[in-house]
Design goal:
alpha/beta, Four Helix Bundle (Hemerythrin (Met), subunit A), Rossmann fold, 2 domains, eight-stranded mixed β-sheet, 13 helices, 51% helix, binds guanosine-5'-diphosphate, binds magnesium ion
Length: 329
């Protein structure tokens, strides 16, 4: 059975609404990407060099990233030779298979968070303004809470007007306490307070918001270093996760931000938000393949339950679920 048929079987029968979330959230990308692939396949019946050139353009247009596209197309060409594939219609399943392979590499999805079993876990969120840090923190608090975990939030964005209130609104909505100080105070001091408070409450998870100003790398590095130093002084090995939030709708700009933050601090994973708002959801692959940082969570909407752990198979199924698959059984 073809890879895509297997995916389809696995996910059309699944009753969880997670697969549905992936499918709904990726609608724009699917409509842009799959319809172009379908069109390409109907125009070129036979696999040839021009077919691959057009395929490259489609993939680059979906923000898959130049290097990743080249790698993918090379592998497709190898598969075409190996399996002696002649018809383009047979290639669709191979494309979906290679996309999953490229994402997973040797390590698999790697979306699991480093959660301490019987101790406080500290998760630090970083990223520029407007990417969705505060919103994602709210959604993640909701996820943890629904798993029965005790969560505390730290209002570490003391810089932006309204940022503390925004986190408080999420705290109320989700039903978790928010530790804050006055606007303009030292974020490191907020972190210190938050750790004491989380300990007193015997919390499982402390999620820390930070300011997103990024005038220059030196400032960013200094501020993040200070925040991390304070956290680490209180809890060795913390923060257990440093999650960089990137806005999928910003395309190559998100890649540039990722490089800057990667140089400034130890990023352990990426949260890619607003995938629902872009037709270029291929950026997931570029991030993983070019930055070597796992995409741990994705944002598929603005609602509380629109945050999902990343899953390469569900993602690829979400991209291709309407694809016409003519491959042999
Ligand atoms: N459509 C969509 N909007 C999102 C998502 N995540 C965040 N947003 C929106 O992005 C905007 C900025 O989010 P915010 O959390 O304030 O960003 P921050 O400055 O990084 O803290 C808000 O309007 C959010 O509702 C997502 O996954 N999908
Ligand atoms: Mg914010």
């Amino acid at each position: 059975m073809s890879f895509f048929k297997k995916l389809k079987e696995k996910f059309t029968q699944s009753t969880d609404n997670v697969t549905e979330k992936f499918r709904d959230g990726l609608t724009k990308t699917r409509e842009n990407f799959s319809s172009k692939v379908n069109d390409l396949v109907s125009r070129y019946r036979k696999v040839d060099e021009e077919f691959f050139e057009e395929l490259e353009e489609i993939l680059i247009g979906a923000d898959v990233g130049f290097d990743t596209v080249m790698e993918l197309v090379d592998e497709l060409k190898t598969e075409v030779k190996r399996r002696n594939i002649q018809e383009t219609s047979e290639l669709q399943s191979v494309i979906s298979e290679k996309l999953v392979e490229i994402y997973q590499g040797d390590e698999g999805d790697n979306s699991e968070l480093n959660i301490q079993e019987n101790d406080l876990t500290v998760i630090l969120f970083v990223g520029v303004n407007g990417v969705g840090k505060t919103t994602t923190i709210g959604k993640m608090a909701h996820l943890f809470k629904s798993e029965g975990k005790n969560v505390v939030l730290a209002a570490g964005d003391t810089f932006r007007a309204g940022a503390i209130e925004q986190l408080e609104v999420w705290g109320e909505r989700v039903g978790v306490p928010v530790v804050k100080q006055a606007e303009g105070s030292d974020p490191a001091a907020v972190m210190y307070d938050a750790i004491q408070s989380a300990r007193a409450k015997k919390a499982d998870i402390l999620i820390c918001d930070t300011a997103g100003r990024l005038q220059n790398k030196v400032n960013l590095m200094k501020e993040l270093e200070k925040v991390k130093r304070v956290i680490e002084r209180e809890i060795p090995n913390a923060p257990h996760e440093v999650l960089l939030v990137l806005d999928a709708t910003t395309g190559q700009n998100a890649m540039v931000q990722a490089k800057t933050f990667k140089e400034a601090t130890n990023v352990s994973g990426i949260v890619l938000t607003k995938l629902d708002g872009t037709a270029k959801g291929g950026i997931v692959l570029a991030i993983r393949n070019e930055l070597k940082i796992p995409v741990k969570y994705i944002g598929l909407g603005e609602k509380m339950d629109d945050l999902q752990p990343f899953d390469a198979e569900k993602y690829v199924y979400g991209l291709f679920s309407t694809l016409v698959d003519n491959s042999e059984e």
